[in-house]
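Title: Prediction job returns without error message
Component: structure pipeline
Severity: low
Priority: P3
Assignee: unassigned

Description:
Job completed but the reporter wants confirmation the result is attached to the right record. Sequence as submitted:
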Amino acid sequence: MAHLLFKDVNKVYPNGYHAVHDFNMEINDGEFICLVGDSGCGKSTTLRMIAGLEDITSGEFYIDGKLANQMTSRERGIAMVFQSYALYPHLTVYENLAFGLTLEGIDADIIEEKVQATAKILGLTEYLERFPRNLSGGQCQRVAVGRALIRKVNIFLMDEPLSNLDAKQRVTMRSEIKQIHRSVGATTIYVTHDQTEAMTMSDRIVVMKSGGYVQQIGTPYELYFHPKNLFVAGFIGEPPMNFLKGKVVKGKFVNDAGMSFDLKPVVNDVKSIEGKDVVFAFRPEAIKLANGGKAGKDEYLIESNVDLTELLGDTTNVYANVGDVNVILKVNPHDAPKMGDKFVFCVPYKAAYIYDKETEEAIPSDIARQ
């Protein structure tokens, strides 16, 4: 295991492009950290700086209390799993797993023991004599993970390792990688563009935005229930959070769609945002059906027009509009409206978020989220 510390780490390329801005974070021994964000947000660049494959332009990076800026990749004690598997096609699974150990001059008996033990953990024992061309994508990815695992290093780095797999294989490999992490206990930094992977696998998530800016660091629960700005609120969650723009007038949220909501139940100091342009936000799955067309206690009532519905089995996505804003709602298939219907629903106070439109930051609220 390893403890990592980043202090104001920046990456600026020779052409002047600033890929990572002031990255600050402490990663504890054995943590599983996911870096997520849109394309060009600097997550892979950050991973490569950890690995020593990219120089750090400014700032300090420590491994177990030792300044690592100038350490070589070998000195850092890392193992990396790439998106492309990077297996040697002319070597068998056994030879691929043993390759690094062979280069280190380790005794053949020890190599045999380590390969067999690693293959058992990954369910590869029966495939040891096969070549990569005779394996499925999921099996190739397990070999790539095994090649990193067999080195018994303290830091695992994974750069979108599941992006080449189909949906079913990704689900299987997510659970396998998490189980491996629990059994090995190495500090793991995992890069992905898939927020589902991040939510299901990580202890904490780092959400990054284009240009290399960190938006929020927290547990999956914290990011889902307490997104600190509009970017995180829109990035975490599937389908994404719904946003309705309006203004605060006499302590109420009002907009052109005729909505008028008292904000006192969900904002700590509503006077501080009087007259401001704000965003009223709620998650698709947080809504409730309006009982008799009326809101219940501690709920906001919203009217919409249904454009489209998608039956997904256990739930139905309802695409509707509130005024001129498109929203997505998740409902029980048995309660789903029809296309063209008027649909009245409620947003509980505990599921309503208010953001400052100018700063895009969350307006403070002490309401209990769940």
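Comment from assignee: result matches the submitted record. The chain has a mean pLDDT of 91.
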